[in-house]
Every structure is written in C-alpha cells, then in structure tokens.
C-alpha cells in the first residue's frame, strides 16, 4: 500500500498509524496531567526552571533537558498505549506456557493495555505516578516486556523515533507556554471523565476540555 502516510490493515479495519496514535497519546498525557495537578506543577516547574522563561520557541535540543517530562510520557504509555493489542503473532512450533499446551500456528494476541496495569508487575497500577520510572531501567523500546506500547521484535513500530519526538515536542510546547485550567462549571479535576472507547486504538470517549492560559513572556 503506497501513500504519504502509512496505513496498517488488520482484518477489515484500517487506521492511520502515524497520526492518530501520537494525538491519542498527547490527549491522554494532558488528561492525566489535568487530573494530577501535583504532576502538572512539577513538570512545569522543571521545564520552566531548566529552559528559563524567555524562550519564544522550543528547539529539539530542549527535549534532552527535561527528564521529568520523559517519565510522564513513559507513564502515559503504560496506562494508555494507543494500541491495546499488538499486531497478531503466530506460533511456529509447539510451546508450553504455565502448563498450557499451545500448538503450532496458533494466533497470539498480546494485550499490552492489560500488561501495563498488571498488579503483579506494577505497584498501584491504576495511579499515574511518573516517579515509578526514576532510576528504573524499564523502557518502552521493546526490550522490557512489561511496557510494550510500540511492540517488540521484528514487527516493532518503525515510526517510534518520530512518534516519541512528536509527543515530546508537542507536550513540551503545551506545558512551557500555557497554564491549564478546568473549564467553567467543572469544580474538581476528579470530574474529568476517564472513560475509554475504541477497539483497535483506545481513545478518550469524551473530548478533553481544558482552558489554556498563556504564560506571559
Ligand atoms: C505514539 C505513537 C505510536 C504508537 C503508540 C505506535 C504503536 C505501534 C504498535 C504497538 C505497533 C505494532 C507493533 C507490534 O506488533 O510489535 C505499530 C506498528 C506500526 N507502526 Fe506505529 N505507533 C506510533 C506511531 C507511528 C508512526 C509515527 C508511524 C509512521 C510514521 C508508525 C508506523 C507504524 C507501522 C508502519 C507499523 C507496522 C509495522 C509492521 O507491520 O511490521 N507508527 N505501531
């Protein structure tokens, strides 16, 4: 299939791999930040202290300076992988897993959404705690099986470097230049709806509504 964008086809569904997934990740990251003012404040303090208050644009080099933002993105990938299931795999030979016999040519569906919330692997799995990745070598580049938002092995997402740069730059801009308030009529951040929708990709069911307040330069 040839197009300026890359399409993935799974069964009868087609989705725009390169655009949708990055936007989904940014929406979930902003949703979690709005729901967790402590994390939002810490992120903005780090960003503004590190970059200073006088920049009129963010450069790619700035990304390397903001460590906490990277932890936030990791935590977003853990709780909200854009694709809940990886591309289907097939066993090439007989394998035994936890006492179960899996014959050759069995289709395997890997639910990374569930793995990211597995209480046997994560402490307080439902909570958004970027600090869990401080001094941790767990990364999302396909080597740590508890965190596989981009998959792993030969079929790992080829757009990963572009995706990460897009999400990092996007969030960095949103957090550096703007403060974020709840919309009129919403009294508490706990009122932000977290319901998910979709099957191929997991999107936020209701649109996220926040009010940007421009920080004075
Ligand atoms: C946050 C953004 C993104 C996420 C979370 C994501 C996630 C994934 C995942 C989970 C897979 C399946 C990997 C596997 O089964 O092991 C995949 C495959 C793929 N992704 Fe992404 N992706 C993102 C962005 C992108 C971008 C920006 C592009 C292209 C510019 C892209 C192109 C592809 C392609 C072509 C495949 C299929 C690879 C194959 O068939 O072997 N993705 N992606």
UniProtKB/TrEMBL annotation:
Q: What is its main location?
A: membrane
According to its UniProt record, which protein family does this protein belong to?
Answer: Belongs to the cytochrome P450 family.
Q: Supply one GO CC term from the record.
A: membrane
Q: Where in the cell is it found?
A: Membrane
Question: Looking at the record's lineage, which domain of life comes first?
Answer: Eukaryota
Q: Which InterPro entries match?
A: Cyt_P450, Cyt_P450_CS, Cyt_P450_E_grp-I, Cyt_P450_sf, Cytochrome_P450_71
Q: How does it sit in the membrane?
A: Single-pass membrane protein
Name the coenzymes or cofactors required. Answer: heme
Please identify the protein, giving its name as recorded.
Cytochrome P450
**A molecular function GO annotation:** heme binding
Q: Where does heme bind?
A: 157
Keywords, comma-separated and alphabetical? Heme, Iron, Membrane, Metal-binding, Monooxygenase, Oxidoreductase, Transmembrane, Transmembrane helix
Q: Name the PROSITE patterns on file.
A: CYTOCHROME_P450
């Amino acid at each position: 299939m040839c197009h300026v964008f890359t399409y993935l086809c799974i069964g009868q569904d087609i989705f725009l791999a390169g655009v949708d997934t990055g936007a989904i990740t940014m929406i979930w990251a902003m949703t979690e930040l709005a729901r967790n003012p402590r994390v939002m404040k810490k992120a903005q303090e780090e960003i503004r202290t590190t970059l200073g208050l006088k920049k009129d644009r963010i450069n790619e080099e700035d990304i390397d300076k903001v460590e906490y933002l990277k932890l936030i993105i990791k935590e977003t990938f853990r709780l909200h992988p854009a694709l809940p299931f990886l591309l289907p795999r097939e066993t090439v030979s007989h394998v035994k897993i936890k006492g179960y016999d899996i014959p050759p040519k069995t289709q395997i569906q890997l639910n990374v959404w569930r793995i990211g919330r597995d209480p046997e692997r994560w402490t307080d799995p439902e909570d958004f705690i970027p600090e869990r990745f401080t001094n941790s070598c767990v990364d999302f580049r396909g080597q740590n099986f508890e965190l596989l938002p981009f998959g792993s092995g030969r079929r790992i997402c080829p757009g990963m470097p572009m995706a990460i740069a897009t999400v990092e730059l996007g969030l960095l801009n949103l957090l550096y230049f703007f403060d974020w308030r709840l919309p009129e009529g919403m009294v508490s951040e706990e009122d932000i709806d977290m319901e998910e929708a979709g099957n191929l990709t997991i999107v936020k069911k209701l649109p996220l509504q926040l009010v940007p307040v421009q920080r004075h330069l």
